[in-house]
Design goal:
This protein has a single domain, classed as Beta-carbonic Anhydrase, Chain A (3-Layer(aba) Sandwich). The protein has 8 helices and 5 strands; from the N terminus they run ααβαβαβααααββ. Bound molecules: zinc ion. The site of zinc ion has 8 residues, from α5. It catalyses: hydrogencarbonate + H(+) = CO2 + H2O. One of its GO terms (molecular function) is carbonate dehydratase activity. Catalyzes the reversible hydration of carbon dioxide to form bicarbonate.
């Protein structure tokens, strides 16, 4: 996790090290051994490798709008652990997430739930929005944190991952990215 946070610090201080070169890309062509996994949001303003100043082959990344887990998504994360031995999964949400905002609105008024599969995605975020609905302050930030913490707990309870967590080979952490400052804060 320190390596991820160090990379984010380089970005914050405009001291990034990584620019993609064909030589580097070729070095990774025959296999991968990423040192961490990040489960992020699909938002175009949250590109994981850029946020952590990393490159091809460094981070195993899964992204869905609003960091919503599904069977194939969990399968992807399990692959990263079982086949690639990643010792860390960071669930990285971000402030001003459109999916979280939609869930806060849908929690207030279910008629505002979007149609189709997008509705299912937003509905998956509604419990976190309901959990914080009566709190004062920034309800969107609170809903995001509740959702990221719940997602971390779901992964920690995953039977494929649990044994590795118990014996110290795997850690799952939640974090939030600030769109305006580029800073990652671990919950
Ligand atoms: Zn988002």
């Amino acid at each position: 996790m320190q390596r991820l946070l160090d990379g984010n610090k380089r970005l914050l201080s405009s001291q990034t090290l990584h620019t993609q070169t064909l030589d580097q890309i070729r070095r990774h062509a025959t296999g991968q051994s990423p040192y961490a996994q990040v489960f992020g949001c699909a938002d175009s303003r949250v590109p994981v490798e850029a946020i952590f100043d990393e490159d091809f082959g460094d981070v195993f990344v899964t992204r869905t709008a609003g960091n919503v887990l599904s069977e194939p998504t969990i399968g992807t994360i399990e692959y990263g652990v079982v086949a690639l031995n990643t010792p860390l999964i960071m669930v990285l949400g971000h402030q001003s997430c459109g999916a979280v905002k939609a869930a806060v609105e849908a929690a207030k008024d279910p008629a505002k739930t979007p149609q189709g599969a997008l509705g299912a995605l937003v509905s998956a975020l509604v419990p976190a929005a309901q959990q914080v609905a009566d709190r004062g302050g920034d309800v969107y930030a609170a809903a995001l944190e509740a959702h990221i913490r719940a997602t971390v707990a779901t992964l920690q309870g995953n039977p494929v991952l649990a044994g590795r967590i118990t014996d110290g080979r795997l850690r799952v952490v939640g974090a939030s990215y600030d769109l305006a400052t580029a800073k990652v804060t671990v919950y």
